[in-house]
């Protein structure tokens, strides 16, 4: 008999699903947790999210959608607590989560779904206390990140590596975003292959859809006939925004006729080690003598982000590591080709030569050449744009939620099964 899943405890400790993506530690994971929860709720599943409160003004409980309730758990100071300091608050956070459930009847939740290793530590405790299955999604992995560090970035500490290994061992099921992540979990973390399921993240195909480019540019104050390259994401070495600026500068040298009509839109805010030098990207633009071509835009709403993607001729995602790359799939859904690094989940999110161009490595010359092709070859741009829409159509959040619900049911079946 297939286990029934009616209530899910969704744990996202280090960043709230309600935070604006592109600021602080908020990014693709925030979108993932919120969109997945929305689609689960639409299928009749009650979702309770647990996240750490970061403001005294935030209500303890917020009903954000029908069927979705967010619990803002007080654990540590509201502000000024860096992500690497959060392990010190795990006990307090876990205690408050357990307290919230204690007011319910036994067996209230059918499954716990944790996101990122910090949440997984709490999820492992709740699993044992509530006698319900634990499903975990890594989103990023320290061993993968440390193997491909960007210049100027700091390696993840040993405590995180150990914590991730513990979470992998404790989980009844692990959700991998792609086949690449599946093999990383099995090969690097010793995960049981039978307890790892690949479920691709999705894209909101109603929010991210083809828009009129001219109208989008007029709305955003962009030149109607210029060439626009967009970088969208948190400003930190991992995301490699410097490569976009360097490639644009090189492109201007190769094609002087482009220099006056090229706009590079950098949309996002500093995060992680990028907080140490928030002005570094503006300084780089000045040293490359392209300040007049670069437009820095603070994080924007999802609707505005879709407009920026539609206004761009190409979106560049040169990250050193991505578990999936939601920005890439969202840009393609709008009909904008993507130039991306051939790393991690980006090899799934982008269909090379069909919806965009994948680049091996991080040689600026390679990115400049790919951008040049897309910007100057109208037939190629048109073909990739059409392919981008078709490729993105294969990724919908409804499918993600349906498959995740099936993983929950498998986890419930696995609960208590001997893992030796």
The unreliable regions are none
Structural class: alpha/beta
**What is the chain-wise order of helices and strands?**
EHEEEHEHEHHEHEHEHHEHEHEHEHEHHH
Please tell me how large the radius of gyration is.
21 Å
Helix run count = 16
Report the portion of residues in β strands.
15-25%
Percent in helix: 40-55%
Question: How far from one another are the termini?
Answer: 25 Å
Number of strands: 14
Give the biggest sheet.
8 strands, mixed
Overall 3D shape: globular
Mean pLDDT: 91
Strand order of the largest sheet: 3-4-2-1-5-6-7-8
Structural summary, described in words:
It is built from 16 helices and 14 strands. By secondary structure, it is an alpha/beta fold. Helix 1 packs across helix 16, helix 7 packs across helix 11 and helix 12 (about 325-335) packs across helix 15 (about 380-390).
Question: Which terms would index this structure?
Answer:
420 residues; alpha/beta; 6-stranded parallel sheet; 16 helices; 42% helix
Task: Summarize the structure in short.
With 420 residues, the chain is α/β, with parallel strands linked by helices.
């Amino acid at each position: 008999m297939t286990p029934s899943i009616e209530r899910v405890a969704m744990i996202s400790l280090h960043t709230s699903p309600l935070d604006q993506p592109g600021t602080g530690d908020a990014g693709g994971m925030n979108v993932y947790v919120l969109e997945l929860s929305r689609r689960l709720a639409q299928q009749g599943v009650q979702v309770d999210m647990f996240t750490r409160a970061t403001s005294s003004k935030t209500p303890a409980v917020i009903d954000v959608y029908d069927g979705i309730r967010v619990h803002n758990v007080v654990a540590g100071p509201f502000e000024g607590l860096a992500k690497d300091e959060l392990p010190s608050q795990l006990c307090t956070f876990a205690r408050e989560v357990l307290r919230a459930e204690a007011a319910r009847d036994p067996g209230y939740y059918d499954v716990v779904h944790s996101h990122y290793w910090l949440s997984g530590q709490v999820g492992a405790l709740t699993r044992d206390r509530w006698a319900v299955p634990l499903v975990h999604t890594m989103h990023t992995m320290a061993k993968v990140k440390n193997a491909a560090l960007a210049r100027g970035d700091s390696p993840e500490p040993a405590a995180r590596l150990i914590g991730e290994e513990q979470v992998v061992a404790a989980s009844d099921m692990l959700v991998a975003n792609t086949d690449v992540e599946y093999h990383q979990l099995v090969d690097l973390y010793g995960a049981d292959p039978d307890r790892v399921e690949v479920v691709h993240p999705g894209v909101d195909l109603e929010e991210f859809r083809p828009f009129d480019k001219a109208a989008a540019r007029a709305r955003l104050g962009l030149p109607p006939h210029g060439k626009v390259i967009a970088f969208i994401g948190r400003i930190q070495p991992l995301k490699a925004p410097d490569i976009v600026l360097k490639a644009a500068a090189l492109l201007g040298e190769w094609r002087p006729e482009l220099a006056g009509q090229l706009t590079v839109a950098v949309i996002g805010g500093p995060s992680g080690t990028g907080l140490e030098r928030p002005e570094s990207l503006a300084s780089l633009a000045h040293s490359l003598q392209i300040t007049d071509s670069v437009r820095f835009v603070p994080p924007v709403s999802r609707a505005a982000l879709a407009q920026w993607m539609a206004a761009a001729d190409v979106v560049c995602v040169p990250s050193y590591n991505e578990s999936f790359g939601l920005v890439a799939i969202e840009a393609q859904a709008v009909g904008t080709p993507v130039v991306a690094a051939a790393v991690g989940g980006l090899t799934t999110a982008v269909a090379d030569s069909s919806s965009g161009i994948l680049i091996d490595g991080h040689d600026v010359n390679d990115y400049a050449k790919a951008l040049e092709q897309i910007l100057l070859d109208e037939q190629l741009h048109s073909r990739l744009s059409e392919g981008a829409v078709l490729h993105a159509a294969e990724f919908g959040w409804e499918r993600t939620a349906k498959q995740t619900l099936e993983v929950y049911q498998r986890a419930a079946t696995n609960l208590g099964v001997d893992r030796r």
